[in-house]
Design brief:
Blueprint (H helix, E strand, L loop, with lengths): L2 H15 L6 H17 L4 H15 L2 H4 L4 H17 L15 E6 L6 H14 L4 E5 L7 H12 L2 E3 L6 H14 L4 E5 L8 H14 L3 E7 L4 H13 L4 E5 L8 H10 L3 E5 L7 E3 L2 H8 L5 H11 L2 H12 L5 H13 L3 H6 L15 H12 L3 H5 L6 H11 L3 H35 L1
Parallel strand pairs: 1-4, 1-5, 2-3, 2-4, 5-6, 6-7
Antiparallel strand pairs: 7-8
Helix pairs in contact: 1-2, 2-3, 3-5, 5-12, 6-7, 8-9, 10-11, 15-17, 17-19, 19-20
Amino acid sequence: MLEKLTRSFGDVVRTISGKATISEKNIEEAVDSIKMALLEADVNLRVVRRFVNATIEEAKGEKVLRSVDPGQQFIKIVHDRMVALLGDSRQDLVLKGPDVVSVVLLLGLQGSGKTTSAAKLAAYLKGKGRRVLLAACDLVRPAAAEQLQALGAQIGVEVFRGEGTDPLAVARAAMARAKKEQYDTLIVDTTGRMQVDEAMMDELVRMRDLVRPDEALLVADAMTGQSAVDIAKAFDERVGISGVILSKFDSDARGGAALSLKSITGKPIKFVGVSERPDGLEPFYPDRVAGRILGMGDVVSLVEKAQATIEQAEAEELEHKLATESFSLQDYLDQIRRVRKMGSLQSIVDMMPGLAGQVSEDQIDEADMKREEAILLSMTRKERLNHLIIGPTRRSRIARGSGTSVAEVARLLKKFEKSRLMMKKVVKNKKMAGKMMGSMR
């Protein structure tokens, strides 16, 4: 996600933060580098000019040039400008209470990920405690309704298909069903086209007037760059949108759409698609994304992901096992599975301060984790609970069962021993630090 842009901004940050004092010349050089990075990321030219002018105006002020740490002050200015560019603050969905049906209308072109995003949004809202009904009103794209129904079954959300070929009739019947069966949220997946045309817009206007949506969200493909901004403008002018879901945000997109949408359309990005999985939709936080772009990481999101995959009691039990050297290969396997639930290793690395943009996808071997999981699954539970019993004969059997070599099995066991020792020291030092802080208090 935004890898090249993050790398470019990281270079600027490192250069400017290493200076004890900065001059107007330093600032101009840094801003020129920022301007080139934004243009290469396919950010709208008008947006780049506004960003650059505002940064120069604020950075050349007396406050920065004479501050105790002018380098850090300049970085803060760039960060604040970036946050403003992305939308200032998180914009949540505005939905009614549980006693009334809230309608979310999804708009977008074919191929933008609209149907998939409808299911992901349903899963997200279901996780927030809402009772969701999906309405399959895309009757133009072949198998769109079947796709939505399959996705609905996967996430445990009912899909209303209706009968006939009139999407308005299906939407009307879906609304009646939602009211009758006391659903509090109706998500309407609408017709898409390969490109914006009058027939589609006229149909969407009629759909909007019929369902009177609380939220009209455009699903835009992050990989289309400036085209996504033009599409958003066209939909907003004809139908009216309240926000954007930026799909394929985990791709190698340059970032032009994310950095231009709010400034050009005035509409916030509300969600981003970060994977193909049903839970691969995340709220969009401008400040967190700005932090990632500047190489500051996103610790808050990382902690939230960790909390979603491990309970407090499990974390305390794990800490106890690490401290007492009872951490086993079974626990190691459980941790591998939890990490994979948090997303790709690249996305996790991008959230770590100092590593964002510094570790490329080529340097991260996702296959190595899968290989380790295969080796662990080829062991018996008894072997995973006591790795000391794994002798030469058992290693050969495990290697055959996992499709690896004896050397790879031995490497994993050696790595596990080192990891266990290192983690024990970390936990021990943490407890010692806690005791010292307690005595100081």
